[in-house]
Amino acid sequence: MPLPAIATDIVLLGAGAAHLEVLRRFARRPQSGARLALVTPEPETPYAGRLPALIRGDCTMSEACIDLAPLAVAAGARLILAEAIGIDLAGRMLELACRPPMPFDLLSVDLGGESAMPDLGDAGIPASPAGRFLARLPALEAALPDGARVAIIGGGRAGTELALALARRCRGRLRLILVSETPELLTAAPSLSRRAVRAALVDAGVELASAVLAGALIEGRLALSDGSFLPADAVLWAGGTRAPAFLAESGLACDAAGRVLVDAAQRSISHPCVFAAGDCAAQPHDHWAGRILTANLRRAARGRKLGCLLHGWRPQRFAPAMLDLGAGRAVAWSNGLAVAGDAVGRGKDWLDRRRMRAYAPRVAAPRPAPLHAAARVGAATPAAMPAALPRMAAPDALVGLGTPDHMAVLTPPVGQALVQSITCLRACLDDPFVFGQIAAAHALSEQYAMGARPWTALAVATVPAGSRMSAELGDMLAGAAEVLGADGCTLVGGHRAEAAEASLGLAVNGLAEPSRLLRKTGLRAGNALLLTKPLGSGLVLAGHARGAARAAWLYAATGSMRTSNAAASRILRAHGASACTAVNGSGLAGHLGEMLGASRTAAVVWWDAVPVLPGVLELLAPGGSGRCGGKNLPVLAGAGADGHTSLLAGPETSGGLLAGVPPTRAEACLAALLAMGLQAAIVGVVEAAEQGAPMIRVEH
């Protein structure tokens, strides 16, 4: 029976407030026949209401940011961490940096705006996007001497809150000047709000320059529209914003600021397949944009007529607004009425926390149980690779990729041993390109563990049936080809099939000098055990599948899994490693147990020295979701508490190399690994085996 095709691919570009609302509502009520994907360069997005507290230092980054990974899992959406650089509207493809384009049926744009600032050189820093500004703020603060003058451009809410927050952060060390193009700050707010804001600025020591436009910064002097100059060591631009240039360049109808012109349904007036909200849209709705966008994306996916208004929506003279004054105070206004004080500050804090909790689902969306592989495979197709896959030719390939023969014919170099390995991974991520990279690094590890040089590879890929099958297969193989090519391994052919879930298998041929092969039988008593990557990839992936892993943990884990073991293998062999294995499906305990059994030795593992990925200890903590059993428990002794068993015996995906190195060369080997940027460590020592004693003993 053919598997059902995916009806509509909805791509959400950007993690703005409207898209967060779309994800929240899809998590509450999924829609069959539609598949969501969130494309954003950062794993977390700052919540606007908490930015002043974060700048002041009153809260941590995790307390001020919305974690996108659990929200995406709950909504059944793919999380694609990538930067968009263009849109092909004719082909309905979203162009991404450093990876293949992404197809879509419906595209919704809700990117953060970019500060519309002139060229101020290194002294000018845009306040938008907020994530980039926050990343640059500590370096700016450290570079400015005491008494330096900092101009903040923009008399609206963003500039005012930024000035007040920086004043509390710097505590008088810097002179802050707020430059406003209007005579009054917050011209759209009631008079009581303006008076409260002005009083807060005076109390904070922020100077005001009103009714002037800022221009160029020349030799420490900021030109103003009235002909005067303002001394400034740095300029923070919190004025107007503009949309990314590629929106207008794609052919979308946009206004002068590059924002997409939309109708009352949040849909582009020039291209019906595109929607927009937030800073990237010239929109009629603001407070209700997320709800309207969600409803119309659902309707568009079903081919139904779009709606313009929601039940209960009424236009307001002034949209509800709140502004953080610092010191626990805030001001709020709506429809010409305003209130200010400590009680408003407490109310704003409660409301911000409540809104953030709404985007932190407690229960992950259930995932269907995978079918047995024999029942999954559908109609097989020839081994033709997608057109998007880079064509690579092996110098010794008589027949290979791009030929009509559907097979590879190779001529091995004379005198070299042919090392063959095969691996297969089911999709551990919803991002096919990143999964392809991980699968390739995972497959190459077996070659590096034996000291071989990867030469060629054949792929067997399965993807779910549907209209995007070719594109997803192309992304998967392009990711694999990128990692393989970087290590000098050529993808010479493959085969594909339809299945209920994606998977990628790679048969790798490597070359090695027979006398220099590393075997599992080479461990000797006294050898130091070196591990070249931190543990916990399997635990993080399992946590992500349940919506329990933070996006930052997933980002760190995928970075580790995509890292090749090529450099580690070279360093280990250069320092006399006598045995080596790749830490993958059987975990550290399982693979170490294989080496010890083959070498007739035992080992001590030092728990405190074992490197772990970010978030793993939190998943293993009491109440966490990272505990698991394992077939490798009998070889362990002393690892029964605090989740040690789950970490040491749990499976890894594209883990590091574990090698035995002579004790006299272990420290130099570790230093060389660390110098290459690897998170390596000496995790134990090999001992002589004793009758009846456990093979692996864990010491704390």
How many β-strand stretches? 39
Helix content: 25-40%
By secondary-structure content and strand pairing, the structural class works out as: alpha/beta
Structurally, how many domains make up the residues?
4
Global shape: globular
Task: Calculate Rg over CA atoms.
Answer: 29 Å
Just give the CATH class of the largest domain.
Alpha Beta
Count of helical stretches = 20
The CATH topology annotation of the largest domain reads as: Phosphoribosyl-aminoimidazole Synthetase, Chain A, domain 2
Largest sheet: 7 strands, mixed
Instruction: Quote the average pLDDT.
Output: 85
The CATH architecture of the largest domain comes to: Alpha-Beta Complex
> How is the largest sheet built, in terms of strand order?
34-37-33-38-35-39-36
CATH homologous group name of the largest domain: PurM-like C-terminal domain
Low-confidence stretches: 363-384, 387-393
Percentage of residues in strands: 25-35%
Beginning-to-end CA distance, first to last residue: 55 Å
Describe the structure concisely for a colleague.
It contains 20 helices and 39 strands. The chain is an alpha/beta fold.
Written description of the protein model:
The protein has 700 residues and is an alpha/beta fold. A hairpin with a 5-residue loop joins strand 7 and strand 8. The chain has a seven-stranded mixed beta sheet, with helices on both faces. Helix 1 packs across helix 9, helix 12 packs parallel to helix 13 and helix 14 crosses helix 15. About 4% of the residues have low confidence. 30% of the residues lie in helices and 25% in strands. The chain contains 20 helices and 39 strands. The protein folds into four domains: 139 residues, FAD/NAD(P)-binding domain (3-Layer(bba) Sandwich), CATH 3.50.50.60; 127 residues, FAD/NAD(P)-binding domain (3-Layer(bba) Sandwich); 142 residues, 60s Ribosomal Protein L30, Chain: A, CATH 3.30.1330; 182 residues, PurM-like C-terminal domain (Phosphoribosyl-aminoimidazole Synthetase, Chain A, domain 2).
